[in-house]
Design a protein that fits this description.
Pfam families: MFS_1. This is MFS transporter. Helix 11 crosses helix 13. The chain is 76% helix and 3% strand. The chain is mainly α. The longest helix is centred in the N-terminal third of the chain and has 33 residues.
């Protein structure tokens, strides 16, 4: 139930920020966790196919390259959605966009259940990407709004931890659940989607129960697509965050596309549960690292993310050449720690410096560049494996990512010394 008092969008926000009725703090507190649940569920669902790709591959006979195409189609849907709709919750309302995006995820889940052949798989992944593009920036902005309304004047630590853990942690939970279900229950290509269809419907209910944080505007601004822009606080700091997002998501893209097939082929581990465990180790380590680093300074967080990811990638190369699953698993965990901390640093930097009325837009730009990192390296890996071995292709990719991390470090030094 809303009170009749009015508060600005954000403490310390712009003078022309819209004013709106504020529900009770208890509703903001409950709403924060409702949105976190919906965010976690949707992120988990989008990664469900990761340990199942080899089953589709064995059934339909398509190549490793086609796996990366399927993954790239999902990322394409995300990017199109981010450009067209990732920012409109700033004026259309957070809940409306979240319900629409979750509805698209439910539609994708139903398509997986109806006829999981390759054309339908491609279409379902594209629709899932469209929903996810709207959801990532909107849910992150909604969590920030609810956190600030419930705890005005408090630090952003809770928001940063929950938003990044639900995002990154969800990407690990989905493959783990799907891998275990595919290994130990009947209908491995159907049961995971039945489970997540129910969870997605519950997520829609959770969003409906959460309070809105954007007032309905009498005159809506002229619509325009969301294109990357550095006009969100300090331009150098924002660009550094975009580069960090690309670097961290490049790792996540590899582990949610071709890494499970790599484990089953090169490492001779055909178990779907093990494939899901490998993906979970990367994202689970990322989520834990994000929690444990919540109190360290931003510069130390960035340095830790860069160094851990670089060390993990080097160890990953060793594990691939030795065809050693324990080394590969440990290296993936260390790489996940680095990527998770790096992405957490990027989200915190963007959310803290963006104007309240443009926070969704700024975050949409971050996720757009990050999802380019999610798709392009993985797609490139799929192309290269048509001509060289998987181990050689992964080694080349590690070299590219190490060079990219060096570039992020150089850009960060430029930012801190100017």
């Amino acid at each position: 139930m809303s009170t009749r008092t009015y508060t600005p969008v954000d403490a310390g926000g712009a003078a022309n920020a819209p004013w709106r009725p504020t529900p009770s703090p208890a509703r903001h507190h409950a709403g924060f966790w409702f949105i976190a649940f919906a965010f976690l569920t949707s992120m988990a669902f989008c990664a469900v196919p990761a340990p199942l790709y080899s089953l589709y591959q064995a059934r339909d006979g398509f190549s490793t390259f086609m796996i990366t195409v399927i993954f790239a189609v999902y990322a394409l849907g995300v990017m199109i959605s981010l450009i067209l709709a990732g920012h409109i919750s700033d004026w259309a309302g957070r809940k409306k966009i979240l319900v629409l995006s979750l509805g698209l995820e439910v539609a994708a889940a139903v398509m997986f259940l109806a006829e999981p052949i390759l054309p339908v798989l491609l279409l379902a992944r594209f629709i899932s990407g469209l929903g996810m593009g709207m959801l990532t920036a909107t849910a992150t902005a909604h969590l920030h709004d609810l956190h600030r309304r419930h705890r005005p004047g408090a630090s952003n630590q809770r928001f940063e931890i929950v938003s990044t853990v639900t995002n990154i942690g969800g990407l690990g939970v989905g493959p783990l659940v799907a891998g275990v279900l595919a290994q130990y229950v009947d209908a491995p290509l159907r049961t995971p989607y039945i489970v997540f269809t129910v969870l997605l419907i519950l997520s829609i209910v959770a969003v409906a129960l959460a309070p809105e944080t954007v007032e309905k505007q009498v005159a809506r601004p002229a619509y325009r697509p969301q294109l990357p822009s550095a006009n969100h606080g300090d331009p150098n700091r924002y660009i550094a965050a975009l580069a960090a997002g690309f670097a961290s998501f490049a790792v996540f893209g590899v582990f949610t596309s071709v890494a499970p097939a790599f484990v089953g082929g090169v490492l001779n581990q055909p178990s779907r549960a093990i494939a899901g465990l490998v993906v979970f180790a990367v994202f689970g380590s990322a989520a834990v690292a994000q929690i444990l680093t919540s109190r360290i300074p931003a510069t130390a967080k960035l340095a830790l993310g860069l160094s851990a990811q670089a060390i993990g990638l080097l160890a990953l190369t060793v594990g691939m050449h030795l065809a050693n699953l324990p080394v590969f698993l440990i290296a993936g965990s260390v790489t996940g720690i680095g990527a998770g901390v790096l992405f957490k640093s990027a989200v915190g930097a963007v959310a803290s410096q963006a104007a309240p009325a443009k926070r969704g837009e700024a975050l949409a730009g971050l996720f757009l560049i990050s999802y380019l990192g999610l798709s392009l390296p993985a797609l490139g890996l799929g192309v290269v494996t048509q001509y060289v071995s998987s181990v050689t292709a992964m080694t080349w990719l590690v070299g590219f990512l190490l060079a990219l991390l060096a570039g992020v470090a150089g850009l960060s030094r430029t930012r801190t010394t100017t």
